[in-house]
Amino acid sequence: MNIIEEIDTSISEKLANEKLKQSVLITLFSYIGSVFSILVFLIILFFCFKEKSFVIESICSLAYATGIVFVLKFTVKRQRNTSNIDKFRQKVDPYSFPSGHISRIFAAISPFYSLLYVSITTSILGSLAAFARISKGYHYLSDCIVGSIIGVASSFLAKMTLKFLSTLIFQ
After folding, report:
1. Which of 47, 106, 137, 166 has a beta carbon 3.0–4.6 Å from 81's, enabling a disulfide?
2. Are 132 and 43 in contact (CB under 8 A)?
3. Cα–Cα distance between 93 and 5 in angstroms, integer?
4. CA–CA separation, 104 vs 110, rounded Å?
5. Half-sphere exposure of 62 (CA within 13 A, CB side)
6. From CA 147, how far away is CA 108, in angstroms rounded?
């Protein structure tokens, strides 16, 4: 076992107690980052902001993050802690590395980092979601860290892509 796996296992064992797993709040936070919650987030932001470029950038960022996560999951093939996952999830998404939920959260929110109140709130929610997913045994710490890095990096890719496309189209 390498050092990262030892740290991951140690943290997971400390966080994974039955009281936390049964907590309604932990369960709720573990769903932040699902496709449904991200869609609701984007719809709300679309109607709340005059500047639609943030939402377009988020959608592009989500596309990049989803592709990167999919490739990594089926390349690395890190098994989940199957004792805490139902049979449906084991078949649909059997691998834990990297966390798709966490990558989607950070891919969706990174374009909004210039708006302080949005970035603080959503970063806290993203961190709570990572804590919840580790506590429920769905992910290891490194899954969530790499997922957040992928999300933020996808936002930069989206920004560069959209800037490039706008120069091609509007020049």
Report:
1. 137
2. no
3. 20
4. 10
5. 20
6. 12
Number of Cβ within 10 Å of residue 116's Cβ equals 9
Q: Does residue 63 surpass a pLDDT of 70? A: yes
94 prior amide bond cis, ω within 30? no
* pLDDT tens, position by position, 116-166: 777 787 788 888 888 888 887 778 888 888 898 998 899 889 888 888 887
Please write the tens of the pLDDT for every residue from 9-45.
777 777 676 676 677 777 777 777 777 888 888 888 7
Q: Which among 147, 153, 167, 140 is positioned nearest to 110, based on CA atoms?
A: 153
- Return d(Cα 7, Cα 11) in angstroms, integer: 6
Cα–Cα dist 6/141, whole Å: 11
Is the entire prediction scored with pTM above 0.85? no
What distance in Å separates the CA atoms of residue 51 and residue 152, rounded to the nearest whole number? 20
- Would you give the end-to-end CA distance of the chain in angstroms? 54
